[in-house]
Write a structure and sequence with these properties.
Chain A is an alpha/beta fold. Helices cover about 25% and strands about 25% of the residues of chain A. The radius of gyration of chain A is 20 Å and the shape is globular. Classes of the chains: A alpha/beta (about 350), B alpha/beta (about 525). Bound molecules: flavin-adenine dinucleotide (2 copies), iron/sulfur cluster (SF4) and FE2/S2 (inorganic) cluster (FES).
């Protein structure tokens, strides 16, 4: 209803709604992950690696930030990959191919600058954070960089985009916490090995994933043991390796208007933490500077409320109960096994 | 909404038979005819409009308090110079419709301004009746007339010119953008408003709460604009979703009304704690995202028992009153000066006090403390006293040494002001900002200054444009961009700013500038101008 004249509904510039042209269930189940290719020509035209959008599924939805995982300027589509973690993502996952989202705003945030580096670049993705690193890996690879991609998940079932990342990575390392697939262990362990193997000759590390993962990567790279692991004859400070993380604080508008997304960044010139707005100054920041503790706490602000929304929605849907993400589409698992 | 002006009412009401008595009594009445209101006890728990509005009798009575000055002081103090005396004269004769039409000659959105204008600093400040007693309730009358028109389907008589084939882009759907669109669409331009959020209205929608300005009214005015042919494109953040250059390729002129959307924090320790909000975030959650209907609406908000709101303007009042309505047990407004210096509308301060909001005047926060879980627990404040006047003429608050103390809070709302929205200027290299981040404009025409006028265009593009512009005019072969700006994005550069009515006034000036410049460029547009002038 793009032309309806109530103030609640506006036209999109193309006159079209944000229709899901293609939907793929990457991971089935209650914590499932969905890939949706959505018609949004203006966003596709302007998208750059590192940017995100804000989605509202219907007239009464929250504004939910999601990273642009891919886009196709010619086709006028953007690709979003989202994991069901609560009420709003569940609603999004329930929209089927051919269905529409009411609102998508973007591209938002400052793009990550990609350039040709002298040394290899390491891209780390954890969990659904593998989606945001996809465009960065692609761009870096296309510029002729040596890209070492490390992706990890709790378990094989939750691993995504392995197929997509392989052709655009010089080397792809897969880890699972439980060892059900790839190498057993955390991405940090592999990161350590890779940097050690190159004796610190790494131009940049980009890490996107759950906050504990990004925090662990920073601690790893800034830690003393890390430094000691390298050839002492090389005057080597691992903090010299630029480390970029992409943060996922709670957002409202995504345009810099509310300040709800503020994160604390260490400002060495002032010797104190300074607030920065993730939606415009970020979401990518210098990992060494981020105060992850505050971010973790702020992201837990609405835990009680989120539980209440889920309960309210669950009791509403009691009768018409349907799993959030249709099971039976095990494409990703197959690709995993076919390796 | 239980507006008293609800009942259908003809445009001309017969003058009551006891008119002379009413008039005599009204002239002697020292105070405004009381505004019917929701009881403070009741209203502090709902989001319905606080001021219920005059009915005809009350409005008629109030109109007769006006002495119809030969040289009305009120009119020049109205930022858009509504013919206030003329409006009241019609009302005195019971001609509601004519009174309404008198307003909309200069102000197309009286249902909005009648509710949010700081009349006590404008028309009512200088009304001669205010010398001894209270001024005429000009704002109350404006609200009455606007609501009467809305309820009775009466629209402005302003004429609508046929489409002239030229297109204007308006960036931002706050009062500045809406006013510009209203003017330009009437002149025959195709107007497209680009709005970043998912609903239009700017601060009218996301900032000012329902109980002061029902969203229904904002929607009504916006729907009317749409009815006139104005197109509104939401989810369009100019600079990101579409660039100003792309817009200039598709439109003949641009009006920028992107507002003051940058919330300030104090820069004190503890502002990162959970439960510390900017007023913008708090109000956006409550108003735009309807967090007050949580969990039926999924956007949450932290209510808390003890809420502190820091600041003394309209934004602080709105934050405090929303907190109260959401169910906070105590709400303290913390302001570093005294009530006399508060920039908020006097009526709103008064309403807030009636609703049980506490005021800690001459207090200033220094640190916010949190618990192990990262949630706000207490706020440390200092007491202040007023010292010498500063540049603004207000006495500067000075800290009283060793007056620090702590008070427990669960939620702290920072309402200490906001800066111009920096996004568009940051992403558009040829826009110029001043030290406050405002777009630099010519104060008369509201044209924005451009770094190196027009030179920002690549040569090929300029050539194409030159062709489009026809033979080289006084501007040379390159088409010079027609870009104006108004509202909070220009601050006070063109006179008093920071209000809804100032933004609307800017919208009108910008519309006039755009029209004049386009007439110069496309002489055929002048025909419509002549007709317009001749009618
Ligand atoms: C810049 C950015 C990019 C993101 N990209 C992706 C992505 O590509 N794929 C993906 O699956 N997820 C992404 N996220 C996270 C995603 O926005 C949250 O998972 C989603 O908002 C959860 O909403 P919910 O109602 O389903 O869950 P809820 O039950 O409401 O919340 C679960 C958790 O999600 C977080 N969250 C809740 N509301 C918001 C909000 N409005 N904004 C941000 N976080 C919130 C909170 O930490 C909360 O504890 C991104 C977040 C940000 C800020
Ligand atoms: C809580 C609150 C209460 C107030 N109360 C009063 C009052 O009682 N009386 C009074 O006179 N004034 C009041 N004011 C001030 C008044 O609201 C503002 O002065 C006025 O709204 C400014 O209008 P504007 O059109 O410049 O901008 P805004 O109303 O701020 O609107 C700007 C719009 O532009 C959009 N935008 C910004 N950047 C872009 C972009 N790049 N692309 C597309 N869209 C964009 C924004 O999303 C927004 O919708 C209040 C302000 C607040 C915050
Ligand atoms: S100044 Fe007051 S009394 Fe005089 S015309 Fe204006 S409203 Fe009426
Ligand atoms: S999300 Fe509101 S300022 Fe970033």
């Amino acid at each position: 209803m793009p032309d309806q004249t109530t103030a609640g509904t506006c036209r999109t510039l193309s006159g079209k709604n944000y229709r899901i042209r293609q939907k793929r269930v990457l991971v089935a189940g209650d914590d499932g992950i969905v890939l949706a290719e959505v018609e949004a020509p203006l966003i596709a035209r302007h998208a750059q690696a590192g940017q995100f959008v804000i989605v509202r599924t219907h007239e009464h939805s929250e504004r939910i930030p999601l990273t642009l995982a891919a886009w196709d300027k010619a086709a006028g589509t953007i690709t979003l990959i989202y994991q069901v973690v609560g009420h709003s993502t569940r609603e999004m996952a329930a929209v089927e191919e051919g269905g529409t989202f009411t609102d998508i705003l973007g591209p938002l945030g400052s793009p990550i600058t990609v350039k040709k580096h002298p040394h290899p670049v390491i891209c780390i993705g954890g969990g659904v954070g593998v989606a945001p690193i996809w465009p960065k890996v692609k761009d870096l690879f296309e510029l002729g960089n040596e890209v070492i991609t490390i992706i990890g998940a709790r378990t094989q079932r939750l691993l995504i985009l392995e197929q997509e990342l392989r052709p655009v990575s010089t080397e792809l390392i897969v880890t699972t916490d439980d060892g059900s697939y790839g190498q057993k262990g955390f991405v940090t362990e592999r990161l350590h090995e890779v940097i050690a193997a190159r004796n610190g000759q790494i131009s940049e590390v980009i890490a996107v994933g759950p906050i504990p993962m990004m925090d662990a990567v920073v601690k790893e790279m800034a830690g003393k043991s890390f430094r000691e692991a390298f050839d002492p004859s090389v005057d080597y400070d691992p903090r010299r390796i630029p480390l970029i993380v992409s943060l996922n604080p709670i957002m409202v508008d995504g345009t810099g208007m509310c300040g709800g997304c503020r994160v604390q960044l260490w400002d060495p010139s002032k010797g104190q933490y300074e607030a920065r707005f993730s939606c415009v100054d970020g979401p990518a920041f210098d990992g060494y500077a981020v105060d992850f503790r505050t971010l973790t706490r702020r992201n837990r602000q609405y835990l009680d409320s989120e539980k209440r929304t889920r309960e309210a929605a669950a009791s509403d849907a009691e009768t018409a109960a349907a799993p959030a993400v249709e099971t039976g589409q095990a494409r990703n698992r197959e690709t995993g096994e076919s390796r | 909404m239980s507006d008293r002006s609800e009942e259908a009412c003809p445009g001309q009401v017969p003058v009551p038979s006891n008119m002379a008595e009413i008039r005599k009594a009204a002239l002697r009445q020292p105070t405004k005819t009381p505004m019917p209101m929701q009881d403070p006890e009741v209203r502090s728990r709902n989001f319905s409009e606080v001021e219920l509005g005059y009915d005809f009798d009350l409005a008629f009575n109030e109109s007769h308090r006006c002495i119809s000055c030969g040289d009305p002081k009120c009119i020049p103090y109205c930022p858009v110079e509504i013919n206030i005396r003329g409006m009241i004269d019609h009302l005195k004769k019971g001609d509601i419709e004519a009174a309404y039409q008198e307003i909309v000659k200069t102000n197309l959105f009286p249902s909005i301004t009648g509710r949010v204008c700081p009349q006590e600093n404008q028309c009512e400040m200088v009304c001669v009746k205010g010398i001894k007693g209270q001024p005429v309730g000009i704002g109350y009358l404006e609200k009455y007339l606007a609501d009467w028109a809305r309820k009775n389907g009466v629209r402005p008589h302003a004429e609508l010119w046929p489409p002239n084939g030229r297109a204007i882009a308006i960036i931002g759907s706050g009062p500045a953008g809406l006013a510009a669109a209203a003017e330009l669409v009437r002149l025959g331009y195709r107007c497209t408003i680009f709005e970043a959020l998912h609903r239009p209205g700017g601060v009218l929608l996301y900032g000012i709460p329902e109980f002061r300005l029902p969203k229904q009214i904002v929607d009504f005015e916006i729907d009317n604009l749409r009815g006139l042919g104005v197109e509104i494109v939401c989810n369009a953040l100019v600079g990101r979703t579409i660039t100003l250059d792309e817009i200039q390729e598709q439109f003949d002129a641009v009006m920028i009304g992107t507002g003051a959307g940058l919330p300030y924090f104090m820069g004190i320790a503890g502002e990162e704690l959970s439960g510390v909000y900017s007023a913008n975030e708090y109000l956006t959650r409550a108003n735009l995202m309807n967090a007050r209907s949580f969990p039926a609406e999924p956007t949450p908000i932290r209510v808390g028992d003890r809420v502190a709101v820091v600041g003394g303007g309209n934004v602080a009042m709105d934050g405090a009153r929303v907190a109260k309505r959401l169910g906070a047990a105590t709400v303290d407004v913390v302001y570093r000066r005294t009530q006399a210096e508060m920039p908020a509308r006097a009526d709103e301060v008064h309403h807030a006090m009636e609703e049980g909001i506490n005021f800690l005047f001459l207090h200033n926060p220094v640190t916010i403390y949190g618990g192990e879980d990262g949630w706000v627990r207490e706020m440390e404040m200092v007491r202040m006293e007023l010292g010498e006047p500063d540049q603004s003429g207000r006495r500067r608050p000075v800290i009283i040494p060793d007056s620090n103390f702590r008070k427990p809070y669960d939620v702290v709302i920072m309402a200490i002001g906001q800066g111009p929205n920096p996004l568009l200027a940051t992403l558009t290299p040829y826009l110029v900002t001043n030290k406050w981040g405002q777009l630099v404009i010519d104060p008369k025409s509201l044209r924005v200054h451009l770094k190196d006028d027009a030179a920002h265009r690549p040569a090929e593009e300029a050539a194409v444009l030159a062709e489009d512009a026809g033979p080289a005019g006084p501007e040379g072969p390159v088409r010079i961009p027609v870009i104006c700006a108004g509202g909070d994005i220009i601050g006070s550069q063109a006179g008093a700013g920071g209000t809804v009515i100032a933004a609307m006034g800017h919208g009108k000036i910008a519309a006039r500038t755009i029209h004049e410049m386009l007439v110069e460029r496309y002489p055929e547009l002048a025909n419509s101008l002549e007709i317009a002038a001749g009618s």
